[in-house]
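Re: weekly structure request thread

Next one in the queue (689 aa):
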Amino acid sequence: MSIIEPPATRTGDDVDEVAGVRFADPYRWLEAGTDEVDAWQDEQAKAASAYVRDWPYFDRLRKLVARYDSERFGAVPLAAGGRWFRIEPVPGAVRPSVLVAREPYGEGRVLFDPSAENPGKPPFLSWISPSPDGTVLAVGVCTDGSERNTIRLVDVASGAPLPDPPTQVLKDNWTGGAKWLPDSSGFYFTGTDDDPAGVAHQVWLHLRRGTPSTVAVDVPWLSGDDYRAVVASADGRHVVAVQGLLDPVPVAVSDLSDPAAPAWREFVTDASLNLAGFLIGDEWIAVTDAGAPRGRVVAIGLDNVTPNDPAAWRTIVPESDVTIRSVHPAGDILYVHEFVDTYAALRVVDRDGAPRGTVPLPGKGALGEMPFPMMNIVGPAAEEQLVFAFSTLTSSWGVYRHRPGESRLETLREPAVRLQDCLVEDGWATSEDGTRVPYHLVRRRDVPLDRPRPALLWGYGGFGAPWIPQFPGTMAAFVASGGVFAHVHLRGGGELGRDWWEGGRQRTKQNGYDDLYAIAENLIATRVTSPDLLALTGASGGGLLCGVAATQRPELFRVVAPRVPIFDLIGACRDGYGRFVVNTEFARIDDPDEVRRLAGFSPYHLVRDGVGYPAVFVEAGDTDPRCPPWHARKFAARLQAATTGGSPVFVRIWRDSGHGWATDKEVLLTQETEWLAFVAKTLGMTPPE
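Done, posted below.
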């Protein structure tokens, strides 16, 4: 193998300042979109790509990664007007299309083919939303990998595009795209401003009856820059405005006599109350952790005179020793999604909380839900059934249906990919402050733990998002190659309730990183692995986790692969989305002491000259609106200049690629192969034929 090294990088004299605290920022120039930065980025990418392709097993690994390719989130077909709508690859097509059928996975007709819009570079389908009567399909289309999308409308009967769709841009799919009125006359959606890094949201109403029109929906109690949405009840009587990505609150309600001119009135406006739910009749039914860290299901009457008082709510399912994650309506009953020691469970109750049985899930695993509560707020289902995706650590997403009162589960689609002949083992480590921290190990049955093995840790630990035990996708190729995969649960996530989140957030953020180190040290102490065989990866907040681990505990890991990361937590405060993220999860940036604490886990600021850092492969997308690529550029340049000991440091920025939610499938396959090849090459692994 030849010696491949990235180019050297110049430094500057820039200084960053937050709340009066100043920090040297020698690589600030790498934030700019200049020709010099583009040339630097391309040279770095060329070196990174050459390094992993210089490994003789790269092509073999790519085939293995393709074999275990699977959906990141479990998608299910949507029912409307006696039809079922789904996104699915069509043979010979570059991008998946939207199909419509009479059964969830029946023989379908292509309703929307993104290749027809741009054959040379088909756009990505961000979301679909059929009208309740099944006559119109709304589709979110992203053209550059950034997640920013615009709406297309399709006549379901003919498949023809409908004229005059809304022109506003949606930041992503996190507010569900189009939220239809029950009579199918129009829909609400949430647009954003022109700044990709901004978080200013505006709710719009698009009406289709008569001449199509789109009008802004102004609700007095919607304030600030947080995510927001408006959703109607299935009976067509009310509409509610909700605000808060992580802690959704139904701030205002109106009747639906005139959707274009709602008479809003205040509802629940205490932003500290988490109430992710939906309207049924005259009640908002939701999961809350107010006064119940593990969660409870409550109902709040729309005529409640003290809706901000949790004592005035009706409890449907009280708190217990399991974590209640969400609730799903089906006719007159409710499906309650719970975590039992991080694994999913489903119980059934009526609207008064009386038990109606449990759902027999197909193993120990995870339900397919989006990670943040706002993302799961939809109108209640008209059908008396629950269709859901389910995955385990050894099987990809399957799709299942349960009808109230039935003792069996109907399989609509089997998991497409499985890890054969593998073991899943549950473990607990003890963190620095005595907290017990769970993790799961996956290995081939013929790989005994009789000596240290290559191990790959995968974690997140942030924003109250549960790190669910689902199929590891690309990382299944690591297991197939003889490695031990460790799915870790860290404080800052939501697997064990509100206290688990608050225990790794803001002033306690360091706890989540200490949890990671405790699991790593536990695996080393039990001879599952050793520091020279230990790898770590993660994306977004998990990319930050990787950067913190590499700089706080460089001796603990042999190789670290951060993906779409945020690394400069001080510089992040200069843009709207960055401020939103930092203030929400890490520190209050108007307090100098808090800013200094923030710098204590800002990887860019933790790098020290003359330290032997692990081998590092940083990957990012150049259209990423959440973790802009300059985070990866600056950190990699700083680390390349500082590290000693000979471990390589590479950065790979991908063109027309964003945060991973809207990346082309073939590009994503190559991305995943490159970082995993770097890990496998560093650890001396050989993927099987």
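DSSP finds twelve helices and 37 strands in the chain. The chain has two domains: 15-69+421-683, 248-416.
Next request, please.
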